[in-house]
TrEMBL record:
Residues 158-206 are annotated as: Disordered. This is LIM and SH3 domain protein 1. Keywords: Acetylation, Actin-binding, Cytoplasm, Cytoskeleton, Ion transport, LIM domain, Metal-binding, Phosphoprotein, Repeat, SH3 domain, Transport, Zinc. It comes from Perca flavescens (American yellow perch). Residues 158-169 have a biased composition (Basic and acidic residues). Plays an important role in the regulation of dynamic actin-based, cytoskeletal activities. Agonist-dependent changes in LASP1 phosphorylation may also serve to regulate actin-associated ion transport activities, not only in the parietal cell but also in certain other F-actin-rich secretory epithelial cell types. Residues 206-265 form the SH3 domain. Residues 3-63 form the LIM zinc-binding domain. Gene3D superfamilies: Cysteine Rich Protein, SH3 Domains. The lineage of its organism: Eukaryota, Metazoa, Chordata, Craniata, Vertebrata. Pfam families: LIM, Nebulin, SH3_9. The keyword Ion transport applies. It is found in: Cytoplasm, Cell cortex; Cytoplasm, Cytoskeleton. GO terms for biological process: monoatomic ion transport.
Amino acid sequence: MNPPCGRCNKPVYPTEKINCLDKYWHKGCFSCEVCKMALSMTTYKGFEKKPYCSMHYPKTSFTIVADTPENLRLKQQSMLNSQALYKEDFEKNKGKGFSVVVDTPEMQRVKKTQDQISHALYKEDFEKNKGKGFSVVVDTPEMQRVKKTQDQISNIKYHEDFEKSRIRSDAPPPENRQDYEEQPSNPGRFSQPVGQMRPAAVAPPGGGKRYQAVYSYAAAEADEVSLLEGDLLLDVEQIDEGWMFGCNQRTGQRGMLPANYVRPV
């Protein structure tokens, strides 16, 4: 059975139903109680389970209590009761876990003496440990210049190491990538994985499998094929564990390509 509308009390069908303020409404009936402006779930403000627009939303007001003699008497009585309860609790807990120390001149003298002894012990320990493991460096203009120079040298070394560690592709190789080492004959090129030499580029017979490039690869030899991520490779044949032979459908190039940069389709 369809529930009644919160305003017109007529049945509300599912296609036009709005569930809000614990009631069901027609879309046309969900309007401000004052100006009848149509509202939505993001523009209404509820008050006493009735929708209002932001202009006619009832403002809450505070009640002013007159400071009459009767109210003053009640206030004073409440304060007396509070003080009586506090004193009663204080007497019950007296001597249980804590004690009240009177701040007499003698206690102030003892406290001051303890502070002086603590300060003397701290200074003595500081002098003993001076130069053991750390030293105080004065921040002079000369030290600031040395620090700035060291920061610049560190930054230059970082960029230099970063350029050296860049690989030929614009994406990292798979997690199971083997370590590479430089060949003395060509220091600008990365060698093949240790213990594995790249075979000669010999075209295998047709009818190979289809692969897709997972990473981009820039060809370093004339018999290699450059790849972009997502390229489709046709007639792919496995040459050995690290290299394949195939044709890049996008460029039409045929040649060698690294096996860990592609996946079967």
